[in-house]
Design goal:
Number of helices: 21
Mean pLDDT: 82
Membrane topology: Multi-pass membrane protein
Family: Belongs to the TRAP transporter large permease family.
Strand content: under 5%
Function: Part of the tripartite ATP-independent periplasmic (TRAP) transport system.
Radius of gyration: 22 Å
Protein name: TRAP transporter large permease protein
InterPro entries: DctM (IPR010656), TRAP_DctM (IPR004681)
Oligomer: single chain
Structural class: mainly alpha
Order of helices and strands: HHHHHHHHHHHHHHHHHHHHH
């Protein structure tokens, strides 16, 4: 067989192994090692595996992953998410469907210090959904708002998916973080517009009945400031230090993790047992992500050796499909895979194939990365995988709330994300203007 045939067979074998249920990382390592062995020999495959383990994991940027994961977990146990929601709830109470909009913007702010969509879905399913149902909103709408706005966690910096993309595409993590700000704000506005439109055109979808919450608790200006201070301080520390040029991404992650630890200790939200559990969870998430990146790096090198990306670039770019035809096929494939597997796995499977084609097409790689992350996040809301949906169902533990109800609640927000994706394609500066300053 030719190298191209071996590479193509390796891709097909990987998809088959995933279908059988093999873990993504193990499947990637297996087909990559076998592919290199067939193209060259087993000695080359062993040396390449050792080189990948050494080269891909010694980068100092990988220290960013555990630090930002730890910061997000510490913030989650400190009730900072609830305080953020309380602030926006009071500010937007008199706006039409104001609690829905408050949830969106609280999620956006909370995302700026977590970087993980599932953390946002977990926190706000316990904070926002009960509050919204008390005020007469349907559970379907309330959970749909939480699930929809949770996608901001992987877009607004710091973002775990942005870090993964930056490593695979050899782009600056700081620039990728900057590129997520414009699209994050855009999606927040589109989500808010969607909520207002639903409240006016489909009140039966939004409202279940009368507001049974009674008079809201009076919050003074001092109370609002006290609730807003922790998250604003962390945002200033992490994002201000990063974008002000005082801290690199690793230092910003360390500063954020330390700041989140101080907040948790001051609020007495971190007994020894909980702290140990957070350390273990941080280690588990970090190891799984780094193992996947190692496997994807070997997979990428195997594909480069086979010539598959080069052949695909010629097929897409020299034929009638063209660069933007390739882009639409790529995004559609991401959205389709999002119905079946998780976000990081989608990126690790497709990016080694797609990045060389995108580079040959002359695309701005930061813009391409933002499109990738937004498209990947659609998979958090679509059945049957819909990780955010299942996270909300698990966190709420409400027997009267079915998974199907949550999925139906997310439908308007899936279309909202797709509208945002279309706008970023049509107007690339939404993603690139800050990153290119």
């Amino acid at each position: 067989m030719s190298p191209f045939e071996i590479g193509s067979l390796a891709i097909a074998a990987l998809l088959f192994l995933i279908w059988l249920g093999m873990p993504i990382g193990v499947g990637m390592l297996t087909v990559s090692f076998a592919g290199v062995s067939l193209i060259r020999n087993e000695d080359v495959a062993l040396r390449m595996l050792g080189a990948v383990a050494n080269d891909s994991l010694q980068e100092y940027l990988f220290a960013v992953v555990p630090l930002f994961v730890m910061m997000g977990l510490l913030v989650t146990v400190s009730n900072v998410g609830k305080d953020t929601f309380d602030v926006f709830e009071r500010l937007l109470r008199r706006v039409s469907a104001g609690l829905g909009i408050a949830t969106v913007f609280a999620n956006a702010v909370f995302a700026s210090i977590t970087g993980i969509s599932i953390a946002s879905a977990t926190v706000f399913s316990r904070v926002a959904v009960p509050e919204m149902t008390r005020h007469g909103y349907t559970k379907r709408f309330a959970t749909g708002v939480v699930a929809g706005s949770s996608v901001l966690g992987m877009l607004i910096p710091p973002s775990l998916l942005m870090i993964v993309y930056a490593v695979l595409a050899e782009e600056s993590v700081g620039r990728m973080f900057l590129a997520g700000i414009g699209p994050g704000i855009l999606l927040s506005v589109i989500f808010s517009a969607t909520i207002v439109l639903l409240a006016r055109t489909r009140p039966d979808f939004v409202y279940a009945g009368e507001d049974h919450a009674g008079e809201p608790e009076a919050l003074t200006l001092g109370d609002l400031a006290r609730k807003a201070l922790p998250i604003l301080s962390l945002m200033l520390l992490v994002l201000g230090g990063l974008y002000g040029g005082f801290l690199n991404p690793t230092e910003a992650g360390a500063a954020g993790a330390f700041g989140a630890l101080v907040i948790a200790l001051m609020r007495r939200a971190l007994p020894g047992r909980v702290f140990w559990q957070l350390l273990v969870e941080t280690g588990q998430i970090t190891v799984s992500v780094l193992f996947l990146i190692l496997a994807a790096t070997l997979f990428s090198r195997m594909l480069a050796l086979s010539g598959v990306p080069r052949e695909l670039a010629e097929v897409f770019l020299s034929g009638s499909i063209g660069p933007y035809g390739f882009l639409l096929i790529y995004l559609a494939l991401i959205i389709a895979l999002g119905c079946l597997i998780d976000s990081i796995s989608i990126m690790l499977i497709l990016l080694p194939i797609a990045l060389p084609v995108a580079q040959a097409a002359g695309f701005d790689m930061i813009w391409f990365g933002v499109l990738t992350v937004v498209a990947v996040e659609v998979g958090l809301l679509t059945p049957p995988f819909g990780l955010s949906v299942y996270t909300i169902k698990s966190a709420m533990d409400d027997p009267d709330l079915s998974v199907g109800d949550i999925f139906r609640g997310t439908i308007p927000f899936v279309f909202a994300v797709l509208a945002g994706l279309a706008l970023i394609i049509l107007f690339p500066p939404i993603a690139t203007w800050l990153a290119r300053l």
